[in-house]
């Protein structure tokens, strides 16, 4: 058992699950974590492979072992609940605040030997191991809760877990990029309804990150300024798309949003990644995060499906150009209506929007909390 003191009064305790995976408890109340995983030992799945799509020069992960993973279990069989007599779960303890554990059916796994993904692969590139890491982040033990329902204290603890995992995963020599994200709602592919997110640590730059880096570096070269700094300055100047702002963070609908309700939340003083946030920025994140998600659910008075993803600078490149921000995207455009990604979006990546960003920003501001 390893214990580590983090910021915001958080203590991390590491334990080992029945198959050798690590589970990390993030606590703020002096808990002692000694519960043993009593499930029968089992072997972890073998590593998958990455194949290059030569038309786009992009890696595609092939992880056939994930076909058998659990799918929308009922509440009483929730594998992310604390363990109880007669029902043993992924969390051996009978309670928890925040936990992070290695995914039982990961798309990406640590390689068995030294690994470095090719920087400039081409048509002839062979399949390579699907190197990386996949972790699950449980925000709370309350199955019926959601991120917007968490207290400021709990959100701050989740943030500290994200920061801790980013820092530790960044030390792995085969990791190039770290991406915490959350899917909420079956409409966006959720397979477990317990409030949780994931962290994917890639051994290569995902296509969107690579493109964002290319654009940000070109802007820096041409202007001498950081792109996201200029974007935020424009949003503050125009004001029509700003949803809420506090001393350290701003939330806005982007000028060219792709989804009916898309919200970006960024520090006013930009940083490269989650680790680089200072204490004041960390402490002021929870109020704006909670308010924005409450406003999102309040637009139509229904639970909104969304994907919330942290975009940050890669581990080893572009840290002078890319800046941390949180993107929340919802495909619901009206009660009972979703924006489906049709031919233009799915086949060609060319997005078409029926709602002006200024309109969705106004709807979000109009929500009474």
> What is the assembly state of the chains in this entry?
single chain
The helix/strand order is EEEEEEEEHEEHHEEEHEEEEHH
What general outline do the C-alpha atoms trace? Answer: globular
Corresponding CATH superfamily of the largest domain: HIT-like
- Largest beta sheet: what is the strand line-up? 1-2-3-6-8-10-9-14-15-13-12-11
How many domain units?
A: 2
CATH class of the largest domain: Alpha Beta
Rg (C-alpha, Å): 21 Å
Report the biggest beta sheet as strand number plus sense, adding barrel if it closes: 12 strands, antiparallel
Annotated CATH architecture of the largest domain: 2-Layer Sandwich
Number of helices: 6
Structure overview:
- This protein has 369 residues and is α+β, with helices and mostly antiparallel strands.
- The chain folds into two domains: 2-204, HIT family, subunit A, CATH 3.30.428; 209-366, HIT-like (HIT family, subunit A).
- The protein has helices at residues 152-169, 207-223, 227-238, 279-298, 343-348, 357-366, and strands spanning 2-5, 11-16, 22-27, 49-53, 58-62, 98-102, 128-129, 132-138, 177-184, 196-202, 242-245, 249-252, 261-267, 306-311, 325-330, 332-334, 337-338.
- A hairpin with a 5-residue loop joins β1 and β2 (11-16).
- α1 (152-169) packs across α4 (279-298).
- The longest helix has 20 residues, at 279-298.
């Amino acid at each position: 058992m390893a214990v580590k003191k983090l910021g915001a009064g958080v203590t991390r305790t590491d334990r080992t699950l029945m198959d050798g995976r690590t589970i990390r408890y993030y606590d703020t109340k002096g808990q002692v974590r000694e519960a043993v995983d009593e499930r029968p030992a089992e072997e972890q799945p073998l590593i998958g492979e990455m194949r290059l799509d030569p038309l786009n020069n992009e890696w595609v992960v092939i992880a056939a072992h994930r076909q058998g993973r659990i799918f929308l279990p009922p509440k009483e069989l929730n594998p992310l609940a604390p363990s109880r007599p007669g029902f043993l779960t992924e969390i051996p303890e009978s309670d928890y605040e925040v936990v992070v554990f290695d995914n039982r059916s990961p798309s990406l796994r640590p390689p068995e030997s030294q690994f470095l993904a090719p920087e400039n692969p081409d048509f002839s590139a062979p399949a390579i191991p699907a190197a990386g890491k996949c972790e699950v982040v449980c925000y709370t033990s309350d199955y019926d809760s959601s991120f917007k329902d968490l207290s400021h204290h709990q959100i701050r603890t989740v943030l500290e877990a994200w920061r801790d995992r980013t820092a530790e995963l960044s030390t792995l020599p085969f990791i190039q990029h770290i991406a915490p994200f959350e899917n909420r709602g079956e409409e966006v592919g959720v397979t477990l309804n317990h409030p949780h997110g994931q962290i994917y640590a890639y051994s290569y730059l995902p296509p969107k990150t690579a493109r964002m880096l290319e654009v940000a570096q070109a802007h820096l070269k041409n202007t001498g300024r950081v792109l996201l700094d200029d974007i935020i300055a424009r949003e503050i100047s125009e004001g029509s798309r700003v949803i809420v702002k506090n001393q350290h963070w701003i939330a806005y609908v982007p000028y060219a949003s792709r989804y009916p309700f898309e919200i970006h939340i960024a520090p006013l003083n930009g940083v490269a990644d989650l680790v680089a946030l200072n204490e004041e920025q960390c402490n002021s994140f929870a109020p704006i995060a909670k308010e924005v998600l409450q406003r999102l659910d309040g637009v139509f008075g229904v639970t909104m499906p969304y994907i919330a993803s942290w975009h940050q600078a890669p581990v080893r490149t572009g840290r002078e150009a890319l800046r941390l921000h949180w993107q929340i995207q919802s495909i619901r455009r009206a009660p009972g209506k979703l924006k489906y990604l049709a031919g233009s979006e799915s086949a060609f990546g060319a997005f078409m929007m029926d709602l002006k960003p200024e309109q969705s920003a106004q709807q979000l501001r109009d929500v009474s909390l």
